[in-house]
């Protein structure tokens, strides 16, 4: 399993602190969403971002993933409350020499599906199967 897959599986299981443990202490990130861009630096800033989101049973359904050296990519659907698709995302992360995520960028759009999700081919990344 690629680190990007492990990261999303950990997020989706609700273990937000464990997910941020996969980040370098000085990680830089940007989340580009319909309401604007949110950027930050550091594990604490990422944990603050993650804990500030509403608890809606969010799942990342990874439809594509790839790696080129120290950079990993994922594309997929975001679902909430089971299988209700709320949009699609494209993510990229750079791994440092210790395998920690030191740069992370994601864009999310509620309408544009690079690869649409049919509801069948991409199970939840949550190891509990939710």
From TrEMBL:
Listed name of the protein: SnoaL-like domain-containing protein
Pfam families: SnoaL_2 (PF12680)
The SnoaL-like domain, residue ranges: 4-103
Taxonomic source organism: Rhodococcoides corynebacterioides
Organismal lineage: Bacteria, Bacillati, Actinomycetota, Actinomycetes, Mycobacteriales
InterPro entries: NTF2-like_dom_sf, SnoaL-like
Transmembrane segments: none
């Amino acid at each position: 399993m690629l680190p990007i897959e492990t990261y999303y599986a950990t997020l989706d299981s609700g273990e937000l602190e464990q997910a941020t443990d996969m980040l370098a202490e000085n990680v830089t990130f940007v989340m580009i969403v319909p309401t604007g861009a949110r950027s930050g630096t550091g594990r604490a800033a990422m944990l603050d971002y993650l804990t500030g989101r509403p608890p809606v049973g969010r799942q990342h359904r990874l439809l594509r993933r790839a790696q080129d050296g120290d950079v990993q990519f994922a594309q997929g659907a975001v679902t909430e409350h089971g299988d209700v698709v709320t949009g699609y995302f494209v993510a990229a992360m750079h791994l440092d020499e210790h395998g920690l995520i030191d740069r992370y960028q994601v864009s999310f759009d509620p309408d544009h599906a690079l690869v649409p999700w049919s509801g069948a081919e991409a199970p939840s990344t949550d190891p509990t199967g939710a």
